What does this fold into?
Amino acid sequence: MVLDITNPPSDSRDHRQVVWNERFAADVKHKAQMWFREDFGLESDWTSRALVPLAAKSSLAIVVRMNGVIAGLPAVEVVVDEFQESLVWAAVICDGDRVQAGDVIGYLSGSVSSILQIERVILNLVGRLSGIATTTRHLVDAIQETSCRIYDTRKTVPGWRLLDKYAVTCGGGYNHRMGLYDAILIKDNHLAALREEGVSPADAVRRSREFISRAFTADRANEMVVEVEVDSLGQLANVLPALPDIVLLDNMSIDELRQSVALREKKFPEVILEASGGVTLKNISAIAKSGVDRISTGAPIHTSSWLDVGLDWGSVSCAEHE
It folds into this structure.
């Protein structure tokens, strides 16, 4: 794994959560080299070299142009350090902070040429991650009167999963499984592949439990969450006696969600219910009020708009031209 990840203390059956640490920073450092190659290729920034005095220095503010929630500032520090130029980055707020249009989030000081070369990488990084955090916060705020939680999905940009999921946590959301390696999630496609064997959702849960007991140590087995997807009340009734940790209720109506909660409460209150599919800012409150424990949605990551972030230049001192 790239990260140290921890389970939220409220429920040992929950998924692991992304946290910022040195191992995460090392992953961003690796990505930064790719981002630099995208801009410079194997050559240079010829515009800056043609026009900007070599000794020109400046200090600029990174400013948000719209209201939102910030994410990605520790990653900016890594990117600046990895650029290997005499630049200094100083954040003045923290990830997860709400901001208003015009707020300064940090200052970048040093060589004007270097600033011009690195600015787009920084703005792309903060703009994208802050957009995810902002969209997540809107969803979280919409259900704040309930105990329901918002979770992300694996619908992330390839190579950006840890950053995308980190941004979700900055917006007050929670991380679903990191990948295929840290939980069992029995989807409709798994059941379709086993249709000729007549495997029901309950059968799949039991088979998964048996596999876990054989394949993993006791400690790892206890950490392995088993979740199963159903799309009807009949499937839910079938799977509840098998006691999965979580049942994902896929694309159910609000009335079906309420009935699912009532069915669960009768005999299997320990099973977590997760609603998913068709989640929007308009309907998320009604979904949460149905009584489900959690809502998973890819919307914060794959439908969010970037937060508009820009640079405000200070004075430029110049001694010589390149």
Remarks:
- The two ends are 45 Å apart (CA to CA).
